[in-house]
């Protein structure tokens, strides 16, 4: 079946906070704009139940609620959305090509806002049990934790915040961390240590997760003593839940031969220019020091203005 060809001023790849903000700015500038998203609008932040540090919401706001507001605002300014995977890109010419399964999009500029994905622990049995007791989304799977023991792997902001959230559902929640202190912000740590249903296993890594249709047991190792311990479900139960939060990997594989990357992240200048004219990057997929909703949104705004300037220049 022949693919349909369409023309746009701007194609934005990714509909997280960076991509949606870029869309809002491009739409307001009367640019013909398309956002392509492979899954759900909003990105990883939609799994955060209570976002307390986004300005304008003194009582906090749910990540999904906030992203839905971004989404509605982008649509208000005429931004089009396609929910599909990008299969191939070609940035070699002045006109950029973005290809999906059914369509080929010709565009004057591209804004990459593909974000990041959760990093695997890398232990034996992990990949086989994803969705069978291993989850990367506490909001999605909290209901599966009711009356179960729950283990969260990691010690950063996300790990600790998700662990506190899961205490509302699990019988007991335990953070397993490879160091002897958390890396989360001090304000988050203070809340965690006051959380009565939250426990900690320090200086420990997970080496195996085993089971057939569910997580039946896992093997952990103390990094200081080398001692291994088998953790299983409590008496009377057959399984438990594991939530790894050990970091994030950029979703940039498709761009490896098209633009310059740095450890998988996209290199840009302060105006969000990549090394290819007309191609910009914004948000967590970009090489940067701080990955927050507000910084991603700022990136998206800057990328949109830079794209508009580029279009004016080539025309």
TrEMBL record:
Residues 8-300 form the FAD/NAD(P)-binding domain. This is Thioredoxin reductase. Its cofactor is FAD. It comes from the Bacteria. Its EC number is 1.8.1.9. The lineage of its organism: Bacteria, Bacillati, Bacillota, Tissierellia, Tissierellales. Belongs to the class-II pyridine nucleotide-disulfide oxidoreductase family. Keywords: FAD, Flavoprotein, Oxidoreductase, Redox-active center. It holds the Pfam family Pyr_redox_2. It comes from Anaerosalibacter massiliensis. PANTHER family: THIOREDOXIN REDUCTASE 1-RELATED-RELATED. One of its GO terms (biological process) is removal of superoxide radicals. The gene is trxB.
């Amino acid at each position: 079946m022949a693919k349909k060809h369409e023309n746009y001023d701007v194609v934005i790849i990714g509909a997280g906070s960076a991509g949606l903000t870029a869309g809002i700015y491009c739409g307001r500038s009367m640019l013909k704009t398309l956002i392509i998203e492979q899954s759900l609008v909003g990105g990883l932040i939609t799994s955060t139940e209570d976002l307390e540090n986004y300005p304008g919401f003194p009582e906090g706001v749910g990540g999904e609620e906030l992203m839905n507001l971004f989404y509605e605002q982008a649509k208000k300014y005429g931004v089009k959305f396609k929910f599909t995977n990008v299969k191939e890109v070609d940035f070699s010419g002045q006109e950029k090509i973005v290809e999906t399964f059914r369509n080929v999009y010709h565009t004057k500029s591209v804004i990459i806002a593909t974000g990041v994905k959760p990093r695997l622990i890398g232990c034996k049995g992990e990949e086989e049990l994803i969705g069978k007791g291993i989850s990367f989304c506490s909001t999605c799977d909290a209901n599966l934790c009711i009356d179960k023991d729950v283990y969260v792997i990691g010690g950063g902001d996300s790990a600790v915040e998700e662990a506190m959230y899961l205490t509302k559902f699990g019988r007991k929640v335990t953070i397993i961390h490879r160091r002897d202190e958390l890396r989360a912000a001090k304000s988050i740590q203070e809340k965690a240590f006051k959380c009565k249903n939250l426990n900690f296993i320090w200086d420990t890594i997970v080496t195996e997760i085993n089971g057939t249709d569910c997580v039946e047991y896992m093997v952990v190792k103390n990094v200081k003593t080398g001692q291994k311990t088998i953790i299983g479900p409590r008496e009377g139960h057959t399984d438990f839940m594991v939530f790894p939060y050990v970091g994030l990997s950029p979703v940039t594989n498709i761009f490896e031969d098209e633009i310059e990357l740095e450890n998988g992240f996209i290199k840009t200048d302060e105006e969000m220019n990549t090394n290819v004219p007309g191609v910009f990057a914004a948000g967590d997929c970009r090489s940067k020091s701080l990955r927050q909703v507000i910084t991603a949104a700022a990136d998206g705004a800057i990328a949109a203005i830079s794209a508009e300037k580029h279009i004016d220049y080539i025309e």
